[in-house]
Write a structure and sequence with these properties.
Layout: H1 4-9, H2 16-22, E1 30-32, E2 38-40, E3 56-62, H3 72-85, E4 90-94, H4 99-103, E5 111-112, E6 115-118, H5 120-124, H6 130-150, E7 157-162, E8 166-168, E9 178-180, E10 191-193, E11 195-197, H7 202-209, H8 213-221, E12 224-228, E13 233-235, H9 242-248, E14 256-260, E15 265-268, H10 283-291, E16 295-299, H11 304-319, E17 325-330, H12 332-338, H13 351-370, E18 375-380, H14 387-399, E19 403-407, H15 409-412, H16 418-427, H17 444-456, E20 460-463, H18 465-476, E21 484-487, E22 507-516, E23 521-526, E24 545-546, E25 552-553
Parallel strand pairs: 3-16, 3-17, 4-15, 4-16, 8-11, 17-18, 18-19, 20-22, 21-23
Antiparallel strand pairs: 1-2, 2-14, 5-6, 6-14, 7-12, 9-10, 12-13, 14-15, 22-23, 24-25
Helix pairs in contact: 3-16, 6-7, 6-9, 8-9, 12-13, 13-14
Length: 556
């Protein structure tokens, strides 16, 4: 089969202005970045909605993934193209790629094969500069904070109690913990600090959850920076530079419109990770996809236990969204891994391992049902999958009374996803509202416990002494009502990344809680999760090259 870049190069795509015109987006709202990409101004949401019969949101999630991922984005694109094949009005709302994974293990995040978003290399690398704007805004806060302390520190900020960290959009473990301000009295005030990856920045979460520019400003003002020597909180608003932050994010807040290889419109906007952040694209992009189409297809990062839980309990609660159905993606290779096979032995046929791995699928099916939503289990077919292995999964899912669809979008594009598209249309008739896992007035401990038991299958939750101190501070600030964003290992239902399958009788350990008062949630750190990833032994960056004709290869 041809490479992703070769397939994209052989496919004629429409000018993005034509895609926007087909969606009935008025030209005045377009902010073009060349012929292939445009931002769409937020004011487009005020335009009268085109006459439509339906207006349904579909969430695509997955079972616990392997390191390479199981193809949620590719399946989302394939599903949208499959719906187009059926004559449906459909639009994608997906996350932007981060340079960290692009240069690290997973590579690009624009799909693959004949289910791609284009122009893939531009989207995967710098796109419209949203990640750079978020990084700059985050680090302006850091610079203004340290500058304030250097120049007499009128707010009496305690340098030892600063909670705000710098970020960069790259995996770099050596920057996790550093000492700032060394070199003498003219170089700043020495203190401990560090870097997170941009996808974990609270600015990223704020941009993705803001409903408009006014909401963006309100959330930025509420960011907690640290504490003064009297143990009082210090917020961004007190440093009086929010206008500069808005200026840096002035273009970034508008969603980016691109298209799939088959001309399906796609809003790609925002990119928080689901293992260390809330894992969903922006609210405004999702609403815009719903505004201009009958079917909006969106995704949530990693497995259902991470991204999808946060999609419901954070994004949907905050933005008043409610999906009509869930697509739960699984793969034969993931089921083999959870059935006990070694990660390097997933290409060889093993029906027994697939059968054993169904326990992981069962847990995720139960998790979807916790939210009171109909679902389709989508098997993302790979070339090495055998008919016998697929038959095991199909029989099992149908025995549970759940819709099953095999999807061949990678090799066949939209035509290979028609079965999946029809299955989704068939089940998306349930108008019952979703049921959140917890209530806002639950205690923080109860919120974490409910998620851990209902989503992960844990029997108990333990807070370390540091986490208990954080909990006391949260209660003092009156923030216990906020939802929880649990940072957890993505490769396991538990907080131990080595426990595959369906772990039972385990305890989730909370080692710290970070306050994201601007974003409006509390980041609960479990296990050994890191908010700044590291590069692997052989990074994807070693395979990226620019050809003589200017084509970039090796990114996707």
């Amino acid at each position: 089969m041809l490479s992703n870049s070769e397939i994209a190069k052989q496919t004629a795509v429409k000018p993005i202005s034509q895609i926007a015109n087909q969606m009935h987006i008025e030209e005045q709202f377009l902010m073009p970045y060349g012929k292939e990409i445009t931002k769409v101004h937020l004011d487009a949401l005020k335009q009268a909605r085109p006459s439509r019969q339906n207006n349904k949101l579909i969430l695509v999630s997955a079972t616990t993934p392997t390191k390479a991922g199981e193809g949620k984005t590719t399946t989302s694109i394939g599903l949208a193209q499959g719906m187009q094949q059926l004559g449906e009005s459909v639009c994608l709302a997906l996350r932007e790629p981060s340079l960290g994974p692009c240069m690290g293990i997973k590579g690009g995040a624009t799909g693959g094969g004949y289910a791609q978003i284009v122009p893939a290399s531009r989207i995967n690398l710098h796109f419209t500069g949203d990640f750079h704007a978020i990084t700059s805004a985050n680090n302006l806060i850091s610079a203004m904070l340290d500058n304030h302390i250097y120049h007499r520190n009128k707010l009496n900020i305690d340098p030892r109690r600063i909670v705000w960290r710098r970020v960069m959009d790259m995996n770099d473990r050596s920057l996790r913990q550093i000492v700032l301000g060394l070199g003498g009295k003219f170089q700043g005030v020495p203190r401990e600090g560090g870097f997170d990856i941009t996808a974990a920045s609270e600015i990223m979460a704020i941009l993705c959850l803001a409903n408009d520019s006014d909401d963006l400003r309100r959330r930025l003002n509420k960011i907690l920076l640290g504490y003064n020597h009297d143990n009082e909180p210090v917020y961004v608003k007190q440093l009086d530079f929010t206008g500069a932050l808005i200026a840096l994010l002035n273009d970034a807040i508008h969603p980016n419109l691109v298209q799939s290889l088959e001309g399906c419109p796609a809003f790609i906007h925002g990119g928080p990770f689901a293992n260390i952040a809330h894992g969903c694209n922006s609210v405004v992009a999702t609403k815009m996809a719903m505004h201009y189409s009958d079917w909006a297809i969106t995704e949530a990062g990693f497995g259902f236990d991470l991204g999808a839980e946060k999609f419901f309990d954070i994004k949907c609660q905050s933005a008043n969204l409610d999906p009509a159905a869930v697509v739960l993606v699984t793969t034969i290779r993931a089921l083999k891994l959870h059935g006990g096979n070694d990660a390097n032995e997933l290409e060889t046929e093993d029906v027994d391992a697939v059968s054993r791995g169904l326990d992981n699928l069962n847990k995720h099916i139960e998790s979807v049902q916790q939210f009171n939503k109909p679902m389709v289990v989508a098997l993302n077919r790979f070339a090495a999958d055998s008919d016998a292995e697929i038959a095991v999964v199909k029989k099992h899912v149908r025995k549970l009374g759940i819709k099953f669809a095999e999807s061949r979008h990678f090799a066949e594009g939209g035509k290979g996803s028609v079965e999946l598209a029809q299955a989704v249309i068939d089940v998306a008739t349930n108008e019952q509202p979703f049921k959140p896992l917890y209530e806002a007035n639950d205690s923080l401990f109860d919120k974490v416990t409910k998620v851990s038991r209902k989503m992960y299958g844990a029997h108990d939750v333990a807070f370390t002494k540091d986490a208990e101190k954080d909990l006391v501070q949260i209660k003092k600030l009156g923030l216990e009502h906020l939802p929880v964003c649990i940072a957890k290992a993505p490769s396991s239902l538990s907080d131990d990344p080595k426990l595959h399958g369906r772990p039972r009788d385990f305890q989730v350990t909370v080692r710290g809680i970070q306050i994201n008062s601007g974003a409006g949630f509390l980041v609960v750190l479990t296990g050994n999760i890191m908010r700044m990833p590291g590069l692997p032994k052989v990074p994807v960056a070693t395979k990226i090259e620019v050809q003589k004709d200017g084509t970039i290869t090796g990114v996707g």
